[in-house]
Amino acid sequence: MTIKLNPAGASPARSLIGSGKIDRTSAWSISADEENAILGSDDWTAYSAMHLGEYDAEKADTKARYRYPFGKGGKLYRSALMAIRQRSAQNGATDVYDAAGKLVDLVDKGKGKSAAPEFEFKAARFEYKFTETGPETKGAFEGYGSVFNQEDDGGDLIVPGAFKQTLLDHDKNGTMPKMLLNHGGLGGFFASPAPEDLLPIGKWNHMSEDSHGLVTKGRLINLDTEHGKRIYGAMKENALDGLSIGYQAKQWVRGTRANEPERTLKQVHLIEVSPVTFPMNGAAMISSVKSIDFADLKGAEDLLREAAGFTRAQATGFLARVRRFQQQGEPAAGDEMKQLIAAISRRTELLRT
User: Fold this and answer.
1) Per-residue model confidence as pLDDT tens digits over 82-139
2) What are the backbone angles phi and psi of residue 12, rounded to the nearest 5°?
3) How far is Cα 138 from Cα 145, in angstroms, rounded to an integer?
4) pLDDT, tens digit, for every residue of 55-93?
5) Reading across the β-sheet that carries 4-5, which strands appear in turn?
6) Which helix (H) or strand (E) holds 7?
């Protein structure tokens, strides 16, 4: 028998969204202790209310009966709904898949008290070239900040025209998206950013759409400083080879079938475009980071700073997360942790050379 939609969970999920009790950004995982906290003293009504699926082949009032948890601590997690969409599609639980999609729509439309648009990131391999013609143009480069009609690992696909309005708005206001490094430390891998992390590392002077994607042209600045030299050197050696956009989704179409993108983005508001150390799209997953040797934290910090252009705050924040994951053992399948593991897997050998 298949897992069916649990009405006792669908209604409370909508109530949490309506009251603004939503976590839009954290990675999803739930431990046995957290499940037991929901259950309390055998409160199976409360336990059922936090699960979107029900497997009636199992006995009532057992954990095995209730599947696809979507929240904990009195909050609904958007990342949990995305995980449910993926797993229910794989398991043929169509009703659960559809219900999770509708709940994501409610979250993304801002229903509830927390109605601010979500600040999102989308990374890709950075196909760029330097366009320096002399000392006065040192640090000038161009490439694609985003490519159209390619579904990423998060299930999003950007279509031509998605950047048209935001580029018109920037042109009208005499502004351009900012150029930061690794989103200024805000992109999910690092600890809270240090003030210097939020300083631009360059300036974009042209952005436009062509048939392939978002064309970007810019120039690195402060190349006479130690930090500027590290970034410039890392890009020259292709050690810093990712580009990521920071944006707010304005218009999109939700996929209705398992083989369709989760979202087809038709309009986005572009806030910043960052060279990044770890482009995520196309990453192969691994199940553990235990085999990666970051025991020498000072040496690893130096490698990250020299080979990848990290600031000290970014390097130490990154390594703190790696160490925490190693201490926890086999990591849970949260979106942020998956991305971090995939990033480490791709880049470890480069950082050691």
Assistant:
1) 989 888 887 888 889 889 988 988 888 754 333 445 556 666 565 678 888 888 889 9
2) -60, -35
3) 20
4) 988 888 899 999 999 999 889 999 999 989 888 887 888
5) 4-5, 51-54, 66-69
6) helix 7-18
Q: What is the dihedral of CA 85, 288, 277, 274, to 10 degrees?
A: 20
Residue 185's identity, in one-letter code, is G
- Give residue 270's identity as a one-letter amino acid code: L
pTM of the model: 0.52
User: Above 90 in pLDDT, residue 166?
Assistant: yes
Distance between CA atoms of residues 349 and 291, nearest Å: 13
Task: Give 215's DSSP letter.
Answer: E
Give the whole-angstrom CA distance, residue 185 versus residue 260: 32
3-state helix, strand, coil in the chain (%, to 5): 40, 25, 40
Q: Give per-residue burial for 18-30: e unless 16+ CB within 10 Å, then b.
A: eeebbbbeebbbb
d(CA 18, CA 212): 39
> pLDDT digit string (tens) for 301-323?
655 555 444 556 656 666 666 55
The answer to whether 183 touches 276, Cβ cutoff 8 Å, is yes
DSSP character string of 106-137: HHHTT-SS--SPPEEEEEEE--EEE---SGGG
- DSSP summary character for residue 332: P
**Buried-exposed string 319-339: b where 16+ CB fall within 10 A, e elsewhere:** bebbeebbeeeebebbbbbbb
Assess contact for 310 and 322: CB atoms under 8 A.
no
Which uninterrupted H or E stretch holds 253? strand 242-254
Token code pair at residue 191: 């600890």
Among 287, 277, 291, residue whose Cα is nearest residue 337: 287
